[in-house]
Amino acid sequence: MKIVKKSFGVIPKELPADVCLDAYVGKEIFNYVLSNDNGMSVTVSEFGAVIIDIMTPDKDGHIDDMILGFDDLKSYIENRVCFGAPVGRNANRISEHSFTINGVFYELPDNDSGCNLHSCIENNYYRRVWDFVETKESASEVSVTFHLFSPDGDQGYPGNMDIYITYGLKNDGSLVITYKGRSDKDTLFNMTNHSFFNLAGESSGKCLDQLVFIDAPTMTENRKGNVPTGRIIDVRGTELDFTVPKPLGQDIFSDNEMIVNAKGYDFNYILDNGGKLKLCASLKHPTNGRVMEVYTDLPGIQIYSGNYLNNAGKNGHVYKDYDGVCFESHIWPDAIHHDNFPNPVLKADTDFVTQTVYKFFVEK
Fold this sequence. Notes:
This protein has 2 helices and 29 strands.
């Protein structure tokens, strides 16, 4: 196992208006390539702490990149699609783009038809320079840790906050993502990774034939706009059901109202893991043998089927609808407005640590 540090370029003078990188113009950005002994590698970057690629072999030993993304630093600076992205300070939707903590009202950007989605696209955490903290190497795992300071009022949230992300790669094919956050005020802290996966390779086209399993018989019901109503619904026997593995595209064009409203899947499934790291979902290619299992200690997972993709990506390829699928572990969307949802508030001067694992292997 090993780690290789590589230059990814420098922050250019010409910058999009919706990022705050002026202080970093001319700074060299480095990527870290984590490799195991079984032909798998993962590249992560100081810029945005984004995952650049996940290279894995299929049953014949052919290696492909499992995630959608870009070829160069400039494109990640301009990234508005969340490719490879750690999204924060709060992932998913908050209705009325506002919330109240301890009697204090906080307003967020209205960036999703009256809601706040993923905190903001402008100057989100994945469009900032993160501090390199350390790398670690052992016989069974290699890892790299990044740090970001998010000041009080950043994106509209209270509290000066220190955030750490560690990416670890194991010999068994596990990509372990560890998030740690601490704030000096009560705040919301609900991060996720928004990588788009395609087990046929990032430029292979639609992934609708790939088999999805979700260990969740219930989900949060959405109204139009993909905002939770507050109701919990049973999905068994419906088009929303993945408790028995089925192709992602089997019911994606059905007349189910929630699916029609979302133009596919964009829903939070409820996990019964008791806050412990547990298998919650999987993705399997029908012929090449690749399997990805997802483990998390968080209470929900959002399945997003890439319903609105039309973006230039790696090697000149243009990604279209359903070319990748996201498995976003998180606290439930809009939880701050529903007493029957898990509490998303991180208390001041308290560490919050959570892990999500994407484990890749081959079935021959």
